[in-house]
Amino acid sequence: MFKHIIEDHLDIRILELRHAEQLFDLVSCNQDYLAEWLPWVKGNNTIDHTKGFIEAALQKFANNDGIDCGVFFNDRIAGCISLHRLDWLNKKTSIGYWLDESLQGKGIMTKACRAMINYSFHDLQLNRIEIRAGVNNLKSRTIPERLGFDLEGTIRKAEWVNNRYIHHVVYGLLKEDWKNE
Ligand SMILES: CC(C)(COP(=O)(O)OP(=O)(O)OC[C@H]1O[C@@H](n2cnc3c(N)ncnc32)[C@H](O)[C@@H]1OP(=O)(O)O)[C@@H](O)C(=O)NCCC(=O)NCCS
């Protein structure tokens, strides 16, 4: 199905049920590190949960309402990147992502985001992309900052994660400002 090659050894692919075992294992290995910022991680206790997530993701894609991809490094799933929902009326979407802890620091997610941005603006003809991150999630915030998003504001107590409310920062990128092809 959908596969986009970013460079040698790095591509993104739409998630399918055959990826469930690898994805479940990856999340399990990264449980504590991911749970700091991602509320769904603690509930990801069985392979059925992962299968349910992939089934819902495929349904969302079929409904033209978003896409969930695996980020593959050396042909192994290394993380995920998603367009959460497609707001066709306002031609906008938002990107979410996470990466295997041991594969941080190589620019993998920045490159995957660049590919998703090009897909959103060129293929889907959207006009605006948002990325939200926890105020203190500096690794995540660096990605939109590196890609030229504008910091547009803060949403207080936006999410209950890991037994505390976190504030979100909102970054936005408009098609007319996207030069980073
Ligand atoms: C957020 C997350 C994906 C960031 O991972 P990351 O490896 O820092 O991000 P990137 O893949 O873009 O890599 C950037 C790093 O690679 C380095 N790098 C190397 N080559 C690079 C390149 N060609 N381009 C960009 N960066 C490059 C950068 O200097 C940076 O390293 P630094 O953090 O030591 O300064 C990861 O920390 C994560 O999954 N965290 C937990 C889940 C989470 O918080 N998700 C986001 C919720 S909003």
UniProtKB/TrEMBL annotation:
Record's keyword terms, sorted: Transferase
Superkingdom: Bacteria
Gene Ontology molecular function, alphabetical: protein N-terminal-serine acetyltransferase activity; protein-N-terminal-alanine acetyltransferase activity
Cross-referenced InterPro entries: Acyl_CoA_acyltransferase, GNAT_dom, Ribosomal_N-acetyltransferase
Matching Pfam families: Acetyltransf_3 (PF13302)
Domain N-acetyltransferase span(s) in chain numbering: 12-176
GO cellular component: cytoplasm
Gene3D superfamilies cross-referenced by the UniProt entry: 3.40.630.30
SUPFAM superfamilies: Acyl-CoA N-acyltransferases (Nat) (SSF55729)
Cited PANTHER family: RIBOSOMAL N-ACETYLTRANSFERASE YDAF-RELATED, RIBOSOMAL-PROTEIN-SERINE ACETYLTRANSFERASE
Protein name (record): N-acetyltransferase
Species whose genome carries this gene: Chengkuizengella marina
Classification lineage: Bacteria, Bacillati, Bacillota, Bacilli, Bacillales
